[in-house]
């Protein structure tokens, strides 16, 4: 009888440890991987790195003063919009990640809370 209780508690500990490892380590890895994929997809649309690399080049190869000025202004605005979009996406993923981390703890707290 003593052996069966020991085995049950060992399996309970093993399953709990396995669950929390899966939830926090593997889940965090998956969320961060999806975050990077979303940023790569947004960069494909916004072209932030390309715009940053060519910020001082004139638009449409117009090498006049007006062309250089308009090109710099247009690219600066595009970089600003891209930065805002990246910050919003980062904030959204941070909120999702926080709720992901707090979900098992809050379920355990609600289960343990006296009625």
- What is the helix content? over 70%
How much is the radius of gyration in Å?
A: 25 Å
Q: Calculate the mean pLDDT score and round it.
A: 91
Strand content: under 5%
Count of alpha and pi helical runs: 3
Number of strands: 0
Query: How far do the termini sit from each other?
Result: 33 Å
Which regions contain 5 or more consecutive residues with pLDDT less than 50?
none
Kindly name the structural category.
Answer: mainly alpha
Shape: rod-shaped
Q: Which H/E pattern describes the elements?
A: HHH
Largest sheet: none
List the helices and strands and how they pair.
Blueprint: H1 2-46, H2 48-53, H3 65-112
Description:
The chain has 115 residues and is an all-alpha fold. The chain has a domain at 42-115. 86% of the residues lie in helices and 0% in strands. It has helices spanning 2-46, 48-53, 65-112. Helix 1 (2-46) runs antiparallel to helix 3 (65-112). It is rod-shaped, with a radius of gyration of 25 Å.
